[in-house]
Amino acid sequence: MTNQPxxxxxxxxxxxxxxxxxxxxDAERELENAPALPGPLLDATYADTHRFPPPKWALPTFxxxxxxxxxxxxxYRGDREVREAVAHNVSxxxxxxxxxxxxxxLTPGTQGALFTALAAILSPGDLVLLPDPDYLSTERMLRYxxxxxxxxxxxxxxxxxxPTLDLQALEEAAAEGPRLMVFSHPNNPTGAIYGPxxxxxxxxxxxxxxxxxxxxxxxxxxxxxxxEFHHLAAVEGMAERxxxxxxxxxxxxxxxxxxxVAVAPTALxxxxxxxxxxxxxxxxxxxxxxxxxxIAEDGDFLRQRLVEYQALRDTTVKKINASSVMRVDAAYGxxxxxxxxxxxxxxxxxxxxxxxxxxxxVNPGYQFxxxxxxxxxxxxxxxxxxxxxxxxRIIDVVGSVDPT
Amino acid sequence: MTNQPxxxxxxxxxxxxxxxxxxxxDAERELENAPALPGPLLDATYADTHRFPPPKWALPTFxxxxxxxxxxxxxYRGDREVREAVAHNVSxxxxxxxxxxxxxxLTPGTQGALFTALAAILSPGDLVLLPDPDYLSTERMLRYxxxxxxxxxxxxxxxxxxPTLDLQALEEAAAEGPRLMVFSHPNNPTGAIYGPxxxxxxxxxxxxxxxxxxxxxxxxxxxxxxxEFHHLAAVEGMAERxxxxxxxxxxxxxxxxxxxVAVAPTALxxxxxxxxxxxxxxxxxxxxxxxxxxIAEDGDFLRQRLVEYQALRDTTVKKINASSVMRVDAAYGxxxxxxxxxxxxxxxxxxxxxxxxxxxxVNPGYQFxxxxxxxxxxxxxxxxxxxxxxxxRIIDVVGSVDPT
Lengths: 404, 404
Fold this sequence. Notes:
Two copies of one chain form a homodimer.
Chain A: H1 6-11, H2 17-20, H3 24-33, E1 42-43, H4 58-69, H5 80-94, E2 104-107, H6 109-121, E3 127-132, H7 138-144, E4 148-155, E5 164-165, H8 167-174, E6 180-184, H9 196-208, E7 212-216, E8 242-246, E9 260-263, H10 266-279, H11 285-288, H12 290-293, H13 299-322, E10 326-327, E11 336-337, E12 340-341, H14 347-358, E13 360-361, E14 363-364, E15 376-379, H15 384-400
Parallel strand pairs in A: 1-13, 3-4, 3-6, 6-7, 7-8
Antiparallel strand pairs in A: 2-9, 4-5, 8-9, 10-12, 11-15, 14-15
């Protein structure tokens, strides 16, 4: 398009054209428009919310609000009573320090929280640290804002010890004066959960080199086998420099309501609100009321979900690792697995073949960073029988794709 | 805040500090935090959606979608079938040329449509034309994107002829090579509707000087006395350079669902979608289904609403013009009136006094541009008895504020 703004061009990550033969965005569109196996397509890029529906109170709460019991217009940052409830529930229920409504902003999806936080923090040219691999749209957004991105390798030792970051690389990059670090935790796409020493190292680097951290903890309730989860904001001295992103879109299957939450220092919440007054005005007003019940009233729901997801995780890991074409580390959390293809086939070629010949849509690994190449992200939160059959097709088709 | 990005600073319009004694955003916050008359506050910055609720099919349509009948995840630009329905309904029902789903993007509110359109079009330093007065957040957003803003005076002749723009000022500004013109039509805050010759002049300038136009037509169905409405995009040669912003938040009282629509050239829709993949992913998925019935199934609803709003407009105009403290031109469309205070009292002082002593929140005129100074915007879509009493209080309190 004539006069296309540079920011829009950067958003497509054209710098990866050399590797992919096209920009990341064009590769996504190629996959979107590619031929599919006739019949129903299984989209394994997200959960099946029919098999795994939201908590039972969700829709009635919306109906009550939209039927006259709720506000149609709220402050841009969200209804005050809902924000107070969220502050209380995330601090007592999750252990994320929120002192009250003024530390909380409600957003249109957790994506909205990430965007407004980045907009409120970043200036063009700022250096930002980001694990590799990490959430697919973060690097694109960072480039949109004109930031320079430095990837920090994630390490997943094969001796049974916990995943971590390359802490020496982190320290070296931190010494270059970043404005910000962004990381998803649990890690999207791998499901890694970092131990307390990794979280402490991030905190120490942030304090020593005076940068802000966005901890994208969208999946922090989706943690298996009683795994302990360490919130960065709960580390001494970090609440004042951490934005914690949360929301009910994934674990609670409420993505269709477009709700997200950020817990952040009060002044930053004010700037995020100013951005939100431009981007969307507010999180959908009637749906905001659901957030007052979130965490507080879904304990049984969560316990059952974790049992079912963990069973799906276990059967998926077992099946993949029994194959000769892929290997995968069991996710500590999230509803994702990030298997590596052993055959040498390229990840875009594999994704195209899976859509055309297995009837399954996956996220090719390059979307998550260079370290993701040769992998694919699978969301295993699917109907069990459908998923079991799909996994067989996936393994068959992966084996049939020629190495690049 | 340390390191606050320049874009965030610009968003507050600090250049107006000389006139207001503070930035526009700080003035807004002053009003937000100012003392209010005890008892229920009447917020006349928007419509009372309890008195004027949405069409009856709205909530059941949402419930069906959220209860399992709708998609939880859609393409970022919105569900294809809904976009097809919207394209059909806006072209046959409103006369806005949309050739099909590829010209349409669904957004979180019409605000979301404005943001993604600006992001997809503007580069820092671009010149943008904007009527004075016009929608309160447009100039702030333009400054956020680093654009230079040139205001084009709106003219409202007192001889009974139609409101228009200062066409000579438009032509001179157009000759300076703007990238874009943005205008609300019907005009927010005044309710002006431009005649065909004004729309033709805008189109001619855009073609001659090769710029894009965003026509914010959020209120285009809210038009009184059978007034004809001329869509810019329907002018020969303009569909390819016009973004038309629409949505059901106002006339149809669906703001609480966060839905908006843009009709734009296909390539621009693609870039807007890329931006939306960052800002919010998509319009709330279940709510999207409401847009398939919008326009197609609300004819009777709209006719009744227009009768009721027109009656409110007429009584409000009569009462204001019978007072000795304010004068107002009858809006051709929208649910707003933009009276001028005759006493010489400043608009922030008037707004603060109205909140404290009349229990009414209004938008002070400076929010809409320099030409708005000395005015206030009133949304008259209120319960009739409540509004009648509020108007008496407004007139009393305005008369009591000292001139600046």
